[in-house]
Specification:
The chain is mostly helical. The protein has three domains: 10-81, Helix Hairpins (Orthogonal Bundle), CATH 1.10.287; 104-165 and 188-263; 300-381, no CATH class. It is 68% helix and 4% strand. Strands 1-2-3 form a three-stranded antiparallel β-sheet.
Length: 381
């Protein structure tokens, strides 16, 4: 038979650390044994807790058993959170907005479930009270109808008796002679009249009791309905409050997202501006270095005798570095700036002799006037 797997955290049972010595384990066991002994502990699980304490003590005091237990202790510790973890789990959560939203949604669901349960409990009571009220109202209408009939019969008998004892009947009695009732007939009518009065009194008493019962049932019905409505009103206000908080939080989160997005866009735009300025500085620096390199390579400058149009025609052109090679300048593809005017071009023109580069606009003022036709097999301008 396979041994029963150990699932209890013996260190937590003895309230010691995993690195506790045998002396600390013994001292903790004595303290807890006095506390958890069934003679002193009145809880229903005192015996089981004391036996678990003894098993933990025997395991941790035996070096062999303790080493074997320490091998499986990490898995047991994962399944048994520490008291600090348990305390943290019961503390007010400092959770993320998603968990708060879930918690509020759970609260709304709980309140709605409470309303449904309350309505389910009130429904049979409501039906029972409504049925009782309906039965009482039907009995009351029946008793009122019966009492009305008895009153009509008694009123007819009283009218007949009054007519019989009137002066007109006495005066006309010699003319219209009627047979008088016998004593037995008179006694029977008196008894019936008496019974009808008694029945009327009993029905009136029953009617009064029915009215009292109806008033009680209606009061219970109103009270129950008012309690349910009041409880539902409280839950509805709580739900509205939670939903209002959720809407406010969503608005704040949306505003925060928009602010972050604006800051990110501004930061990206600023970075792009800095990169653009950096590229412009790099291009300017490269152009300056290129001009310095070209000057160091010994490019010659034509004076007024070598170049026909001088400061008399164009002072700006006379101050430029001029080329003395009368040849066709081929294209040099590449998006770059002209060394003369610093304008950006998609290509430049380069002298095959001195390797001087310039844009088509500046090349006209740099090279000498002569045969401008391209060489055989050369690039066209």
């Amino acid at each position: 038979m396979a041994p029963v797997p150990i699932t209890e955290d013996y260190y937590m049972v003895l309230e010691v650390e995993q690195t506790a010595t045998a002396e600390i384990v013994l001292r903790s066991y004595k303290r807890l044994a006095l506390k958890l002994h069934p003679d002193r502990n009145t809880k229903h699980d005192a015996t089981a807790a004391f036996q678990l304490l003894g098993t933990a003590y025997e395991t941790l005091m035996d070096e062999t058993k303790r080493q074997a237990y320490d091998l499986i202790y990490p898995s047991i510790k994962r399944n048994h959170p520490s008291p600090q973890t348990t305390q943290t789990s019961h503390s007010p959560p400092t959770s993320s907005p998603q968990s708060r939203a879930l918690s509020e949604a759970a609260q709304i669901a709980a309140l709605q479930k409470s309303k449904q349960d309350r309505g389910a409990r009130w429904w049979p009571k409501k039906n029972a009270l409504a049925s009782s009220i309906f039965e009482l109202q039907r009995d009351i209408r029946r008793l009122e109808h019966e009492i009305q009939n008895l009153n009509s019969i008694l009123a007819a008998e009283a009218a007949e008796e009054a007519q019989k004892n009137s002066w007109g009947t006495w005066l006309l009695s010699p003319i219209y002679k009627k047979a008088e009732d016998s004593k037995e007939e008179k006694a029977r009518k008196d008894i019936e009249r008496q019974e009808r009065r008694i029945e009327k009194d009993m029905k009136e008493r029953r009617l009064g009791l029915k009215n009292a019962d109806l008033e009680i049932e209606e009061r219970w019905f109103r009270k129950g309905k008012e309690e349910v409505d009041a409880a539902d009103l409280v839950d509805n206000r709580k739900i509205q409050s939670i939903q209002h908080r959720m809407r406010e939080r969503e608005i704040r989160e949306r505003q925060e997202r928009e602010r972050v997005e604006r800051e990110r866009t501004a930061r990206i735009w600023k970075q792009q501006q800095e990169q653009r300025e950096k590229r412009e500085r790099e291009v300017a620096e490269a152009l300056r270095k290129r001009q310095e390199d070209q000057a160091r390579k010994g490019q010659r400058t034509f004076n007024d005798d070598q170049y026909p149009f001088t400061a008399e025609g164009n002072t700006y052109q006379a101050s430029k570095i001029l080329c003395g090679h009368d040849c066709w300048w081929p294209k040099v593809q590449g998006y770059t700036a002209c060394p003369e005017c610093n304008h950006i071009w998609s290509y430049l023109l380069q002298c095959p002799g001195c390797k001087m580069q310039a844009c088509p606009k500046c090349q006209y003022t740099i090279r000498p006037r002569g045969n401008r036709r391209p060489p055989k097999g050369g690039d066209s301008k």
